[in-house]
What we know:
Elements: H1 26-62, H2 68-104, H3 119-124, H4 132-142
Amino acid sequence: MATENYKTIELPSKYTPKKTEPYMCPMHLAYFYHVLTTQKDELISERDGVLNAVRLAEKTNNAGVGDESDNATYNQDITMDLRISERNNKLLQKINAALDRIENGTYGYSVVSGDEIGIKRLMARPLATMTVEEQEEYEQRRG
């Protein structure tokens, strides 16, 4: 879809996609690619930190250091860290799916109708897969 490779475009420092530019032009794709890969890198870094914290808490707990209260705190910390890790893994899957859509030329278009999601919505929610109207209809049917 894009004639230029969005991965190699150097964006101006304060660039934001504009409605006046062609929708999902190489500059738009480069912008969202950068946003999503930055978010992905942060999540991977955070995930590694969470896993290290879980390992440390397990070692401390297994070493028999501390009393019952300490052990309960360690277990609570492990549970919380694992929940965060699970949430981050789900978010990573969504980011990878969005990056795949950029790669195959479908990013920015609804998975339901194929309509443009819109720059404003994507700026607020880069992982959006539906237009606002479709999302609202989907949520009404769900709940």
